[in-house]
Model the fold of this input.
Amino acid sequence: MIDREKIMEMIGCDSDFVTQLLEQFIIECTESVKKINEASVNNDWQTVRGASHKMLSSSRILTLDNLTTLLKEIEIIAESRTNLEKMPSLLEQLNAEIKLIFGEINDMK
Done:
């Protein structure tokens, strides 16, 4: 759950800035999730690692703990290229989590 007040306190900003941050989050995550999904089909684990790492900072700033944990696991598996059999399930979870978060952001508007 996105806590607008907590974000404003944590980064010292106003509500309008948080709105802009959330809009930018949707744009960047849409691109990154697409990149992760496409790269995983092609076994391009370096791209999967890079795109998941890129999303991590935003998920931490927005205090999206479930997403942060999921992205960190994807990043570790892609980087080590071990336990790759977990990747399809993790990507399913990632896509579902992003859909929930985007829905929550859209409901806040």
